[in-house]
Amino acid sequence: MHTLKLSGHDLQLHPLRAIFWPARSMLLLADLHLGKNAHFRKAGIPVPRAVTDDNFTRLEQLLQEHQPRRVVFLGDLFHSDYNHTWATFCAFTQAHEEVSFELVPGNHDILPAAAYVEARLLMHPEIYVVDNLALSHHPLPPETLPEGTYNLHGHLHPGVRLVDAAGNGLKLPAFFFGRRAGILPAFGAFTGCVAVPVRQGDRAFVLAEHQVIDVSGQG
User: Fold this and answer.
1) Is residue 219 part of a domain?
2) CATH number of the domain that 150 lies in?
3) Residue range(s) defining the domain that contains residue 119
4) Which of 27, 93, 139, 175 has its CA 20 to 30 A from that of 153?
5) Taking the mean position of all CA atoms in its chain, how far away is CA 219?
6) In 3-state terms, the chain is what percent helix, strand and coil (to 5)?
7) 174: which strand partners?
């Protein structure tokens, strides 16, 4: 785990692809895409059921480790239309009544309102400001970023491509922090990642071997 000072806050970057904000007892995650594997299986693509188990196992581990009062999902919690994985998620939230589960909606969050009520989800607007952090799913254009805030978002599934001396490359999921916005890696086990260029002044942390590794300036 790595503690990052961001806009005056100490944020803990976890190798399980989440941020814990101790001062707010808040766990931040993005792009779980729950139900994506079931959606693909319905279409005849044989995605293993273990993908879903991995998502819930890691989420449970984070709750046990940090004991957060709040879990805020930064969009794309569920991949598409309703399938049986939503019932599993509802059972998970019901088993953790001490935690407030909250959703800043993304473009994949298309379930009916009753489904979110069933899952005990507190729904936020598309831009949710906590202190001086603007939480969203999509990256916020400068003209929509609330004044004096730093944007934390998901959506892009960021990764960093590392290249060794022999020219061999490896792309790994990453946290990325630019001058005005930071991107969380996709939490979902069946999501992939897209390489984000790391420029001078940017901070990037790849996730590998259960570690958070600072690769700022190496992308």
Assistant:
1) no
2) 3.60.21
3) 2-214
4) 93
5) 21
6) 20, 35, 45
7) 206
